[in-house]
Amino acid sequence: MDLISESMIKKNEENEENKANETEETENNNEEKKVNEDEDPKTIESFNPQRIYQDPEPDPELDSDSEKEENSLLEGEDSEKGIRFLTPFDVKTKPEKKYCFFLKNKIKYIDYKNPKFLIKFLNERGEILPRRITGTSKKFQKRLTKAIKRCKQIGLLPYITDRLR
Fold it and tell me: What is the domain range of residue 70?
């Protein structure tokens, strides 16, 4: 019985070595035969879809740990690291207060002959932006509207456009 089992073990080892040699040879052959994008991979003899994509084996230890963490989070238990939220926690802060550009920079006169400056207060289609967006005061919004309308009238700004900026 010992002789038979020893001979079988030797044969198995030889078979494993042969398989290893064959896989090395096929890998070398595959490297030599590069697949062109135009060629169909089915026409190549050495094409083996199982070698290209192998499903990763799931690690049972990782799955159990992640499930435990999720369950503890859902139940509301505090972990060693502290409280963790499923979604990021947003701190609501006050939005920055809008200010009048003209009052801040002490501009008293809006020049209607300066289209580069006036473009800042127009949207892409050439419409005047409202006060709630620009933050200008009521007084300067009226002056700005007059200046933009004059600029459009003398032809420095277009009335309507697709891409102004």
Answer: 57-86
Residue type, 98: K
What residues form DSSP beta bridges with 82? Answer: 79
Residue-by-residue pLDDT tens, the chain, 165 positions: 565 667 677 777 777 776 766 666 666 555 555 544 445 555 555 555 555 555 556 555 555 555 555 555 555 555 556 777 677 777 777 777 788 999 999 999 999 999 999 999 999 999 999 999 999 999 999 999 999 999 999 999 999 888 776
> Of how many residues is the chain composed?
165
Which two structure tokens, joined as six digits, stand for 118?
Answer: 């006036």
CA end-to-end span of the chain, whole Å? 91
> Is the pTM for the entire model greater than 0.70?
no
Q: Indicate whether 64 and 31 sit together in one domain.
A: no
Render the burial of 107-136: b for 16+ CB within 10 Å, e for the rest: eeebebeebeebeebbeeebebbebeebeb
DSSP, collapsed to helix, strand or coil, labels residue 82 as strand
116 with 146, same domain: the answer is: yes
Q: What's the rounded Cα separation, in Å, for the pair 70 and 62?
A: 12
CA distances, 52 to each of 19, 26, 29, 73, 107 (Å) = 19, 13, 15, 38, 68
